[in-house]
Amino acid sequence: MEARALETGERILDAAERLFMAHGYEGTSMRQITGEAGVNLAAVNYHFGSKESLMQEVFRRRLDWLNEERMRVLNELEREANGEPLKPSVIVDAFFGTLLRMAGDEKRGGMTFLRLLGRTLTEPSEFIRAFLAHEYKTVMDRYKEALFKALPEVPKAEIVWRFHFMLGATSYAIAGTDALRLVTDWQIEEEDSTDRLDRLVPRLMSFLIGGLRAPLPQFENATVEH
Amino acid sequence: MEARALETGERILDAAERLFMAHGYEGTSMRQITGEAGVNLAAVNYHFGSKESLMQEVFRRRLDWLNEERMRVLNELEREANGEPLKPSVIVDAFFGTLLRMAGDEKRGGMTFLRLLGRTLTEPSEFIRAFLAHEYKTVMDRYKEALFKALPEVPKAEIVWRFHFMLGATSYAIAGTDALRLVTDWQIEEEDSTDRLDRLVPRLMSFLIGGLRAPLPQFENATVEH
DNA sequence: GTCTATATCATGATAGAC
DNA sequence: GTCTATCATGATATAGAC
């Protein structure tokens, strides 16, 4: 069957990506996936072996590119800087901006994958978190080091916490296209949806950099050194 | 059976709260819940009617108090201010600080409930998001209005976005006690776990306020007014 | 109110014909 | 590679004895 628009494996991945995004891993059945993909139920196990392996492949297909791109961008920036420390805002843009700009790239999953990723970082399933932690480790370490150098006066623990907070804010921003629409119930009248993504990036960047560069917290009764 | 430590309903709620936190709504079966609670399988349907109603009751038990407390605190602050606008940091603390301080209050669910809440805000299940949106609406509207007054020079849409980002950062901070530990893989050597919560609050507050008060974003090719 | 037993259905996975 | 048919399991929910 050469006439089929996409290979069976790709069609399964596309359907799984969308359905996992919409209903979560546990909330999506293989029957739904194969039904939407228009393939036979047995095809998932034939092509991927199991539902878990399918989930991993859904992520690997996108994350391989994303993480390589993040590495490439950071390497390039450091090369241009000639040993000078980078500005924190440049590092933040290289990490989060590269991610957010995937949203406009349909052939790399677009908003669907971004929302899936945003949701999955808090997904309860153990194997998914372990898998993502492994996939991300090299890149995270690299960016943490870059931030340590860019902010030598800030304790490393604070930087790591703030990286954590930035990840959270970003995940929500992308996962919440409809999730938190409900919670916040905003009526942003002045803009249409085509503008929304273009504006989200600078909006989020301002917020993230403001948070990253905020005055350090004062601990009340902390055991400062011991 | 008066001798039982807790009523059947409460024991089910406690078990469900912990298990939904650990494995998600779809990932938790009623057999697990009743097993951990030490009650019969049929007890859930007798006391709560269905798994969905149980989930709602798990949240209502905690959110009723939280949201009343948030309203009470904000009312009190505004009363004291005598019509003067509140400082943004005071409002942020009333909303997020009140939430975070629940973590230390075991009889109000403590960290378990906080982590459940953090995860659930990105939970895919439709009915949960709809339920939370309804439960939160009054409080969210009240706090948004307070922030609008506190920051009259900032466009309302920006404030709502930044509220959104703050929710995300906070959710992660609490949901991720072990979730993002994996992703960030930090080694915070200098503090023990008893300090962690005491320090999380000022850490997160600094970040949130830095983000909320950051310089406004510049939009590249935006249709500013139309 | 609490239990046992069970109805009814959906799930992930696989065997084996084509 | 793709299909049908089916297995074994586990899910939510309920009927009815105690």
What does this structure look like?
- 2 copies of one chain form a homodimer.
- Chain A is built from 10 helices and no strands.
- Chain A has 2 domains: 1-49, Homeodomain-like (Arc Repressor Mutant, subunit A, Orthogonal Bundle), CATH 1.10.10; 60-212, Tetracycline Repressor, domain 2 (Orthogonal Bundle), CATH 1.10.357.
- Chain A is mostly helical and 226 residues long.
- Chain A is elongated.
- The relative contact order of chain A is 0.10.
- Chains A and B meet through helix 1, helix 7, helix 8, helix 9 and helix 10 of A and helix 1, helix 7, helix 8, helix 9 and helix 10 of B.
- The first copy, chain A, binds a DNA duplex (18 and 18 nucleotides) through helix 3.
In short:
By secondary structure, chain A is mainly alpha-helical. Chain A has 2 domains: 1-49, Homeodomain-like (Arc Repressor Mutant, subunit A); 60-212, Tetracycline Repressor, domain 2. The first copy, chain A, is 70% helix and 0% strand.
Fold blueprint:
The structure is a homodimer of 226-residue chains.
Chain A: H1 8-23, H2 30-37, H3 42-48, H4 51-81, H5 88-101, H6 110-120, H7 126-150, H8 156-175, H9 179-184, H10 193-212
The first copy, chain A, binds a DNA duplex (18 and 18 nucleotides) through α3.
Which residue ranges of chain A are poorly predicted, with pLDDT under 50 across at least 5 consecutive positions? none
Tell me the CATH architecture of the largest domain in chain A: Orthogonal Bundle
**Rg from Cα of chain A:** 20 Å
Could you state the order of secondary-structure elements of chain A as H and E?
A: HHHHHHHHHH
Quote the distance from N terminus to C terminus of chain A: 70 Å
Number of domains in the coordinates of chain A? 2
Mean pLDDT of chain A: 89
Total of helices of chain A: 10
Multimer state: homodimer
According to DSSP, the number of beta strands of chain A is 0
The CATH class of the largest domain in chain A is identified as Mainly Alpha
Strand content of chain A: under 5%
CATH overall fold name of the largest domain in chain A: Tetracycline Repressor, domain 2
Question: What is the share of helical residues of chain A?
Answer: 55-70%
